[in-house]
Amino acid sequence: PVQSLTRNAARMFGTNQRESMAILKIQDPTDDSSDRLLDTLLHQTESATIGGAAFAWATAEGVDMLIRNERFESFLTKGNGRFELIVGVDFTTTPAALTALDKAQNDLEGLQVSVFLTPKGPGIFHPKMAWFGGGKGGSLVAGSGNMTIRGLKLSWEAFSLTQLSESDLAGVQGVWTKWVDANRAHLVSVTSAEAIRRAEENLRLTKQLRAAKKSEAKTPLVPVPALKSELLVTANPIGKDRPGQASFRKHIMSDYFGVKEGQKPTILFRALNQDGSLGRIETREPITKKNSGNWSFELDQAHGWKKLENDKRYPVGVFLKVAQRAYLYYIVHPDASYHGQIAEYLTEHGVVTGNSHPAVPPTDDASKADGDFVRRILSVRAVAFTDDEIA
Which residues contact 255 (CB under 8 A, 6 or more apart)? Predict the structure, then answer.
């Protein structure tokens, strides 16, 4: 939702065009309707052919969410776009993030990544902004969120979106180019020895801070309520005509995943593997069809299963809502462990709507659901959407 309007915001970037207007947006992780920085950035790529960004720090997961998103990659590959990205290493950015950036740069022609090495002094590298240009104008996004899971999606952040006229865009590009040229001495490649050394120091500090937080063990002044997570258990989440897609009835997509008609918000998913490890963070958009009773998401664990001719068994899925638009999940194929227990749970508690397979209506407190399969997913809830960022 639009919280306020500020005129002439682009003036601070070297232009004073009166028609420019910045829209202030608040990313509120408790409000499903609020704008997310990730969605806003991805939307700008749709008509862009060129752009640039500077983030104080990044994590490997943040790089995957933004730069390796299908829409961002399409901007660089199908649209032959060019994008200059500058990331700082004064805090949080670890070797894993630099490796992810290096791989992205090698995979995506048109992406140029540099690391800013802050010179000695009291200041640090701390911007969080991106600009995009294409056609007869562009846009500017500036705010508080870094290229991390929380900065892009799951923390309270504030940012502005400014639509730029052609002359505004020229002004922003001019300021950007002037600043980059003036700081060439501080910009190095993601594989430079000094960038890696500073990233390794960040990793060491991150581990120290995490250890210190664990050892504090202080009683909070204000009681913290127990975390409640909505659990969905459903049969046959893989559509037989949609390999790789997890299919759900429209009312589940609306009530549980928050997907409304005509909307395509990005949703975070993370798979819990059979060995207890976590898969990559998947940034997905709903796949909707106007006259279909089922909508779907492409999910990693929905791949690799094909129903046999006379096998009446079906996969079952367990989804845990960890935060707004963020879900931990696993899909269990008929021959896998836990399948029988979950199928029995569905038989006992499931509800059939129309010609759909049974699903247990989402419960707002997953801890009340019984079974090892629930305890299994609850055991990793706290770490499902964390990265190397220390707040």
Answer: 362
- Residue 27, strand partner residues: 157
Asked if 232 and 319 touch (Cβ cutoff 8 Å), the reply is yes
- Rounded Cα gap, residues 104 and 148, in angstroms: 16
E strand map for the chain: 2-7, 21-27, 50-55, 82-88, 111-116, 128-134, 137-143, 157-165, 187-188, 230-235, 245-249, 267-272, 278-284, 294-298, 316-323, 326-332, 359-363
At 276, the amino acid letter reads: G
- The string of DSSP codes covering 17-75 is -TT-EEEEEEE-TT-TTS--HHHHHHHHGGG-SEEEEEES-B-HHHHHHHTTSHHHHHH
Q: Out of 46-60, 66-80, 111-125, which region has the weakest mean confidence (pLDDT)?
A: 66-80
The pTM (predicted TM-score) of the whole model is 0.84
**What is the DSSP pairing of strand 230-235 with strand 359-363?**
antiparallel
